[in-house]
Target: Cytochrome b5
Amino acid sequence: MATVTSSATPSAAKPLITFAQLQEHTSKDNLWILLHRKVYDVTKFVDEHPGGDEVMLAEKGRDASEAFEDVGHSDEARSLLDAMLVGDFDTNGPLKVKSIPAATSIGVERPQQGSILPYLIPLAFIIAYTAYRMSA
Ligand code: HEM
Model:
């Protein structure tokens, strides 16, 4: 039954996508991907995906957030998502979505721990030796 509630909830411009609906879009020419509780229509993008179509198809009908974040997608990749948004995922359905941080630190190099100790020890030795030679 269609219950139109657009006047009651102004923010409901995008529909709530159920698990059943997600599962209706699982072929390469009709593919939806669930990422961070949002559903995206990637049908037009799947052929251009730099990671290939197979990895995307492998995430059909389920929560792709973990696979997406494991790759460490760039901000540019994330910026493509908006244009493909279908709607929010209905989290009250049978598919439980995990909460994964949108940008993990996986693969992000830490700045070097700038320790000067390895330089300090030989320097102290040189100073001590010079002082010894000068006093001798
Ligand atoms: C709508 C969702 C997605 C978009 C918009 C997207 C976009 C992109 C973009 C732009 C790149 C190039 C590198 C970068 O900018 O980060 C990329 C690479 C990649 N993507 Fe995705 N991606 C999506 C979903 C996925 C999913 C679900 C997987 C599953 C594992 C995946 C796997 C990969 C892999 C493995 C690469 C690396 C390719 C390489 O460097 O050889 N992507 N993706």
In short: The mean pLDDT is 84. The beta strands are 16-17, 26-27, 30-35, 38-41, 85-89. DSSP finds five helices and five strands in the chain.
